[in-house]
Amino acid sequence: MSRTQLSIPVGLLVENVLTSGEPKEVIIDCLQRGDFSRLLPLVKEPGMDFDERLQTAADIGDDWEMAIRQGYEFKFLHINGLKRLLDFRFDRKVDRDYVQDELSLKHIRLTTQEIELLQSLIGRQWIVQAEETEAAEEGRTDSESSSHIPVLIQLKFP
């Protein structure tokens, strides 16, 4: 079975509403009813226009409901969308948690499970791979060393 594919605006809507911490069915119900009052105080980016993104989903046929229930992948994701995804899903920010080098992101410390999840979301276009550089070792703590792996994210077809 193929994964649900989402456009950037709809995928980032899904990521934002998931940051609320509410159960998936509660999120789906709120979005279906167009009543976001329960979600807005809880999401990472409350200024996002949920109505506009839901309309985009309807216009282009993105199945956000299935994506919330069963997971999804991005159809396409530019570098700034990737950075927003890292912030929404993993609370990782550029210049705090990783470095941007043109169209690559370096030294992102993620667990094996986070790496697998990220690859499933962005794997159509981006490669997520472990780094083996001394620079990636700088600033790590012993507790991070066993569970977090420094990774590099690059375009598949630069």
Structure overview:
The chain has 158 residues and is of the alpha+beta class. The protein is built from eight helices and six strands. The protein has helices spanning 8-18, 24-33, 50-60, 64-70, 79-90, 112-122, 134-137, 142-147; strands at 4-6, 72-74, 99-101, 104-110, 126-130, 149-155. The strands form two sheets. The protein has a four-stranded antiparallel beta sheet with strand order 3-4-6-5. Helix 1 packs parallel to helix 5. The two termini are 29 Å apart.
- Work out the strand percent: 15-25%
Query: Residue ranges: pLDDT <50 for 5 or more in a row?
Result: none
Helix content: 40-55%
> How far apart, in Å, are the first and last alpha carbons?
29 Å
Q: Give the assembly state of these chains.
A: single chain
**Number of strand elements:** 6
- Give the biggest sheet: 4 strands, antiparallel
Radius of gyration using CA atoms only: 16 Å
SSE arrangement, N to C: EHHHHEHEEHEHHE
Question: Quick summary of this structure?
Answer:
The chain is of the alpha+beta class and 158 residues long. The protein is 46% helix and 18% strand.
Could you outline the blueprint of secondary structure elements for this entry?
Blueprint: E1 4-6, H1 8-18, H2 24-33, H3 50-60, H4 64-70, E2 72-74, H5 79-90, E3 99-101, E4 104-110, H6 112-122, E5 126-130, H7 134-137, H8 142-147, E6 149-155
Parallel strand pairs: 1-2
Antiparallel strand pairs: 3-4, 4-6, 5-6
Helix pairs in contact: 1-5
